[in-house]
Amino acid sequence: MNTSALKPLPSKSSAAWWRVPQMWLVVGLPTVAVMGSITAAVIAIMGADPVLDKAAYERDRYRVPAHLQGQERMDALIRMQPAHQARNNAAAPVVPAD
Question: Which of 7, 30, 57, 81 is deepest in the core (most CB within 10 A)?
């Protein structure tokens, strides 16, 4: 057997793991993604809109504008519209029939 062919390779000076830029990508990018996801979840949970009671909405919808006249009545009716109707009618609001 020829032992001269099995010589060990000269060792390079290996740097510590924190000095290798690629290691920061391997560790840093997933860490930033997880932190961003947690932040987004906390914002979504803490800033969640309350669920509205449909019965209270219907009751207030007919009670509030009853005593108002003119522009005040129009403004109250427009404020009471559901979001999808108000968004769709922003340029031309619904004019209630008297």
Answer: 81
